[in-house]
Amino acid sequence: MEFDPLTFVAQIINFVILTVLLNKFLFKPIKKTMDEREAKINKDIEAAEISRKEADKLAETTAGLKRAFEKDRESMMSLAASEAEIKKQELLRMAKEDAQKARQTWMMDLEDEKDGFLSGLKSRGIQYVCALAEKIVKDLGDEELEGRIAAVFVRRLKELDFAQKARFGASIRSEKSPPCVVSSFELGDATRRKLRDAIKDHLEYHGEIVFEIQQGLCGIELKTDGYTLAWNISEYLDEFEERLTRVFEGKVYPEPGKG
């Protein structure tokens, strides 16, 4: 086989042309497509990396927010529990105060009712005893009963100590108006003389004495502008009222005549 230079040159030219054509129409588009795909892949990788970093950042932020929320939640729960306890104590205090006020009001009402009952009982007792005493005096005309009442009053006068007698006598003697003996019924002449003699002996008063009647007194009183010496049934009713008060208060009171 003979070497044909023309054919060899032609083949070389054909090869070059084929190479140029392949490079232009095949290799370049393929390389361009591959470069574009590589660029796209690199871009996607960069985007993915950016997304990963953003996701990590978001996850870190979320974790921080969660930690802050947990901390705030614990703080808020603690604060809520503290406020609830304060409110509870406040409500308990208010309930206790309301109960105390209600009890005080109830005790005051009860005390008022007790005072009203005792006052009414005492008033009705005085009226009843006085009416009974007057009826006895009027119906029986018993001078001895009148004398006994006067005798009790005279004993009261004798039982005054020296200083009391001195002050009482000085008060009577210094006043312009005469002393007054008040009783719930008319005193007889003998009883009046006995009272005058007692006042003269114990108070050293020799002047005029006025006798008056006061319905409802149920006893005898010697009155001046500055002093009053009295014996009447209200003293015994006062003792009776005190005993009833002790009963209301649940206290044991000694029986009459036993101290």
From TrEMBL:
Pfam families hit by this protein: ATP-synt_B
Topology class, membrane: Single-pass membrane protein
Keywords, sorted A to Z: ATP synthesis, Cell membrane, CF(0), Hydrogen ion transport, Ion transport, Membrane, Transmembrane, Transmembrane helix, Transport
Domain of life: Bacteria
Transmembrane helix among keywords: yes
Transmembrane segments: 6-27
GO cellular component annotations of the record: endomembrane system; plasma membrane; proton-transporting ATP synthase complex
GO molecular function: proton-transporting ATP synthase activity, rotational mechanism; proton-transporting ATPase activity, rotational mechanism
Predominant location: membrane
Function per UniProt: F(1)F(0) ATP synthase produces ATP from ADP in the presence of a proton or sodium gradient. F-type ATPases consist of two structural domains, F(1) containing the extramembraneous catalytic core and F(0) containing the membrane proton channel, linked together by a central stalk and a peripheral stalk. During catalysis, ATP synthesis in the catalytic domain of F(1) is coupled via a rotary mechanism of the central stalk subunits to proton translocation. Component of the F(0) channel, it forms part of the peripheral stalk, linking F(1) to F(0). The b'-subunit is a diverged and duplicated form of b found in plants and photosynthetic bacteria.
Family according to the record: Belongs to the ATPase B chain family.
Description of how the protein assembles with itself and partners: F-type ATPases have 2 components, F(1) - the catalytic core - and F(0) - the membrane proton channel. F(1) has five subunits: alpha(3), beta(3), gamma(1), delta(1), epsilon(1). F(0) has three main subunits: a(1), b(2) and c(10-14). The alpha and beta chains form an alternating ring which encloses part of the gamma chain. F(1) is attached to F(0) by a central stalk formed by the gamma and epsilon chains, while a peripheral stalk is formed by the delta and b chains.
Stated name of the protein: ATP synthase subunit b
Source species of the chain: uncultured Desulfobacterium sp
UniProt lineage: Bacteria, Pseudomonadati, Thermodesulfobacteriota, Desulfobacteria, Desulfobacterales
